[in-house]
Amino acid sequence: MHISGATALVTGANRGIGRHFAAQLVERGAATVYATARRPESVDLPGVRVLRLDVTDPDSVAAAAAATGDVTLLVNNAGVTTGADLVGGDLDLIRREMDTHFWGTLHMIRAFAPQLAGGAILNVLSALSWSAYPGAGGYAAAKAAEWNLTNAVRLELAAQHTQVTGLLMGAVDTDMMASYDVPKSDPAVIVKAALDGLEAGEWEVLADETARAVKASFAADRSGGQKT
């Protein structure tokens, strides 16, 4: 995937990682960058085309696809975290996370797939695709579903030569993570790693030490030596 000259669309481009994606795509010479958000007036980046888009609304997704028609790089970044646990959490909040990360990503891919033959999709995932902790059960489950969606779509779109790349990382210094007192990566660094990996043809970009450590732990015994 060559970013220079590409026509890119970024979901959730009004803040955080999405805003950095849109800005860096412009800097790298993308011919057109569609910066989308539910509230388009909140997008303040120079050099982009702003579109209204709610990934949880199929009609909104269809309208965005009809308004573009020439997208060669789709960055599925729109996200939400509610803090809902799976057992005791509010089911509406859990559904909101699944609607955004799984169904929203799937709606986008299905709508834009005809435009993306020979192009690329970059899905913004999380190290929580592979792990979980109390207070993030709904988010982790939704990201796990999105990770496997990424792997399945990669196979399904191979015949039309669409590259599908997953981006995985730990905590990033954005508004979404502002209330978490943990070490956080610079979003600009994460996005640079993602775009470098995309141009290198990587299927999966492990953008920080957290993501690399979590994936490396797959081979470890997680039972703690206990049996049930």
Question: What does this protein structure show overall?
Answer:
By secondary structure, the chain is α/β, with parallel strands linked by helices. 38% of the residues lie in helices and 14% in strands. It contains 6 helices and 7 strands. It has helices at 16-27, 58-68, 91-112, 137-156, 187-199, 209-216; strands at 7-10, 32-37, 49-52, 73-76, 120-124, 163-168, 204-206. A 7-stranded parallel β-sheet has the order 3-2-1-4-5-6-7, with helices on both faces. Helix 4 (137-156) links the parallel strand 5 and strand 6 (163-168). Helix 1 crosses helix 5 and helix 2 packs parallel to helix 3. The protein is globular and about 45 Å long. The termini are far apart. The mean pLDDT is 92.
